[in-house]
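User: My instructor asked us to take a sequence, write out its structure as tokens, and then describe one feature of it. I'm not sure where to start. Here is the sequence I was given:
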Amino acid sequence: MKKINPEILKFAKVFILLDLCIVLYALIFQNNLWFLNSQVAFVSSLFITIATFLSYKRNIQNRISNLDMTQSNQSFDRDKIDEIDDPYDLYTEYEEIPESELTPEKIKEIINDEKSKVKKNTFKNTLFSAGGFLSIYRILGYGVLVFGFFALNNNGIFLPLAFILGLGIVPIGVLFSKLIK
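Assistant: Let's start with the prediction itself. The structure tokens for your sequence are:
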């Protein structure tokens, strides 16, 4: 049996505690509609967050499994400062050109060459990360959120404050769990 990550357990405990506080407040001081609005928002927000986490986790695992070791061996020659200063490794093959040979056309050529390297990496990163933001689970989560909002609104039982508090449980829970050590 696989052991659950303690960091995830900490998040879950904070989410459950915050949601329990909202539930108790809704049932004691408000009414069932307040409870319904907050829970619809909380469940859809949690579903979206979990789906996002899982899709990006799968994306990272796919990228690691497809890692080209011949390309990564070149980056082992670089130290940490080089990796910070030049994260895309754009300046490794840089040949110093004497100032006398730098014409406006040559400068434009160098700039265009560097831009094409950045654009190529940007397109490649976008292509590889598309699975993260186009995950079916994430789309379903947003669908549940929108459907829940319209179902509450069309039936005349939508309470904006309760809905926003329900949506806020997940981000506030993340902040609290990061403050707890």
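For the description part of your assignment, you could build on this observation: The CA atoms of residues 48 and 140 lie 8 Å apart. Try explaining in your own words what that tells you about the chain.
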